[in-house]
Structures are given as structure tokens and as C-alpha cells.
Amino acid sequence: MKILVTGGAGYIGSVTTAELVQAGHEVVVFDNLYQGHRQAVHPDATFVLGDLADKAALAQLFTNHREFEGIINFASYTLVGESIQNPLKYLCGNLVNTANLLEAAVSHGVKRFIFSSTANLFDAPARIPIDEQELIKPGSPYGESKFFIERLLHWFEKLYGLRSICLRYFNAAGATPTLGEDHSPETHLIPLVLQVALGQRDQITVFGHDYPTHDGTCIRDYIHIVDLAQAHILALQAVDELGSQKYNLGNGLGFTVLEVLEMARQITKHPIPAVAGPRRPGDPAVLLASTEAIRRDLGWQPRSPDLATIVGTAWAWHKTHPHGYAE
Ligand SMILES: NC(=O)c1ccc[n+]([C@@H]2O[C@H](COP(=O)([O-])OP(=O)(O)OC[C@H]3O[C@@H](n4cnc5c(N)ncnc54)[C@H](O)[C@@H]3O)[C@@H](O)[C@H]2O)c1
């Protein structure tokens, strides 16, 4: 298939692009490099520098590269904390940017759309693991913006026949030998912990030690980046038959912050000092995905569910790329 990947220079987008190319698809990456890295884009993918806010750039993209058979939309503002400081950047920015893309997509006859949604839709889950019936209660303007887009996609199917699959990711983590996580600022636990092992940070702060979990720290569901990428390829292949769907996408396994820290100590052989900090507002005790629906409908199954592989691949990449994609 000929696929447009927006945000394909970013962490998840670059790995998905590489997996798509390896599976024989033709990929065009559209990214404004706001967070992404040109070097992360697979050499066999076509790169187009552009911003979803720029309707003229989108019109040019769809005119120059006719007949996309599917779109995977990773491009987004992504920081929960920033969205609390600057809600309109997210509530309006993410919504309008995606609306621009959708408008261009339907006017050029695109019928398949895969969307990066988030576990931040579930601020106060009633049941663990979290399944697709869970009440949506976004934990931040970031999560709310993703929910707005899920609703937009509902109407685009009803009115224009655009079929979509929303994948609500839990915590993307790990790396391939050549592609890894290089965000600025970095807010994710595993790269932050590894920065301590690299000597780039003195210590890590563990926020909250009194959660109702076995060691008092938050439990999160870490999914290996290649397993996450594979779910997009399966979703593209299945969307015609399944119609529009929403899936929670994690490993289905939870690890506490202290367990991640301990695994990173074992793998890096560095003591990684940690200090206790207060709970952060809006951090639920446990976020753990039910993987039943995505396994059943897409035949997806994680190949690297174990924490040792997730942290080990991330460490291998950070060791060989101590300054990320910068030389
Ligand atoms: N990383 C996670 O654990 C996680 C969890 C849940 C959801 N998500 C979602 O997955 C997607 C990818 O996340 P990521 O961690 O790879 O983020 P990322 O920041 O590494 O990648 C996003 C990419 O989109 C590009 N981009 C942003 N705004 C753009 C715009 N207006 N026009 C064109 N390009 C633009 C950035 O330059 C970047 O390359 C995001 O939508 C994010 O909200 C990520």
C-alpha cells in the first residue's frame, strides 16, 4: 500500500515507517521536525517537510503524492504537563491540525486512517485491566484533544466513509538498533533513568511512594516500540473488514516505577540513584491495558513483552546514541 505517515520522523512514527518499508509498503513521511529527526526517517521512505497547520502544504502533499491508500497520523503535540500549562495549544492545535489532515484526506478519496490515541483518556479507571468499555475521562487537555479527534473520526466515517482505527497507546518504550527515543524535553521514565546511567543526570525522582500497589509506586504498562508499530500495520490491513474501531494498546503487563528502576540498574550496571518526590497530580495508581480485543480482532500479539528486552533495547540505543540523533 502507499501510506502517508504524519509525524514519521518522531519516536513511534520512525519505527513504524521502518516496519512498513520492511513489509514492502511505499511510505511518504510528512513531518515539521518540531520534535522529530530527519535522520530517523528510513532512507527508502520519501520525506516531506511540512506542518499540519499549513493547509497549502497539505494540498501540495496530496497533489504531489496521489492516491494514498492509508494514513497513519502520529503528528501531534504530546506533552501532558505542557497541556496543563497551555491547554489551547492542545485543545485547539491538535484538533485543528488533525481536522486539516482529515479534510485533505477525504477530498482526495482516502478511505483508511489509523490514529495515535492515548491511555490518558482513562484518568480514573474503574476496572483494571482497562478495556474498551471503560468510561472516558481524560486526564489532561492533551488526553481531551485525543478524545476530540476520536469524535471527529466518528463523524468522518458517518459523513465521508473514512474508516479509522484509534489505537490508545499505553507507554511506548524500547528501541531498535538504529531508532530510539530522543525527545526534548524528555518526560518518559525509561529514557530519563537511562540518562542517569549515562551520567547526564545525577538522579531520578520517583513521584509518590504511597500508592496502593505492592511497592507503593505507580504501575504502568510498557509496550515495546516494534510491537506497537506492528499493531499499525495490522490495523491498516484489517480496517476495511472491521470498520472503524478503537483499541487499547499495551502489553497487558504492569511494572512499578521501582521495578523499572531495578531492571535499569541490572542492565546498565549503574547504581542509578533515586530520590522520593511527592505524587504528581493526575497520576493514576495503575494504568494497565486489556489486550483482549486487539488480540482477537487484529491477531496482534507482543513479541517483546518482557521488561528486560524493553529496557535492554532502549539501553543499547542510548549507549550508541548518547546524544540522541544529534552528532
Ligand atoms: N510515546 C508514548 O508513549 C505515547 C503514548 C500515547 C500516545 N502517544 C501518541 O503517539 C504519537 C507519537 O508519539 P511520539 O512519542 O512518537 O512523539 P514524537 O514527538 O516523537 O513524534 C511526533 C512527531 O510529529 C511531528 N509533528 C508534531 N506536530 C506536527 C505538525 N503540526 N505537523 C507535522 N508534524 C508534526 C513531530 O516533529 C514529531 O516528529 C503522538 O500522537 C502521541 O500523542 C505517544
Class from helix and strand fractions: alpha/beta
What is the third-level CATH name, the topology of the largest domain?
Rossmann fold
Helix content: 25-40%
Q: Could you name the CATH class of the largest domain?
A: Alpha Beta
Quickly count the domains.
2
Mean pLDDT: 96
**Strand element count:** 13
Low-confidence stretches: none
Query: How far do the termini sit from each other?
Result: 34 Å
Order of the strands making up the biggest sheet: 3-2-1-4-5-6-11
What do we call the CATH homologous superfamily of the largest domain? NAD(P)-binding Rossmann-like Domain
* Gyration radius over CA: 19 Å
How much of the residues is beta strand, in percent? Answer: 15-25%
Shape: globular
What would you say this structure looks like, in words?
It is a single chain. The protein folds into 2 domains: 2-172 and 222-249, NAD(P)-binding Rossmann-like Domain (Rossmann fold, 3-Layer(aba) Sandwich), CATH 3.40.50; 175-220 and 252-320, UDP-galactose 4-epimerase, domain 1. The two termini are 34 Å apart. The strands form 4 sheets. It has a 7-stranded parallel β-sheet with strand order 3-2-1-4-5-6-11, sandwiched between helices. The chain has helices spanning 11-22, 55-64, 80-85, 87-107, 141-160, 189-197, 225-242, 257-268, 292-298, 307-320; strands spanning 2-6, 26-31, 46-49, 70-73, 112-118, 163-169, 171-173, 204-207, 219-220, 222-224, 245-249, 255-256, 274-277. Helix 1 links the parallel strand 1 (2-6) and strand 2 (26-31). Helix content is 39%, strand content 17%. Helix 4 runs parallel beside helix 5 (141-160), helix 6 (189-197) packs across helix 10 (307-320) and helix 8 (257-268) crosses helix 10 (307-320). The mean pLDDT is 96. With 327 residues, the chain is α/β, with parallel strands linked by helices. Bound molecules: nicotinamide-adenine-dinucleotide.
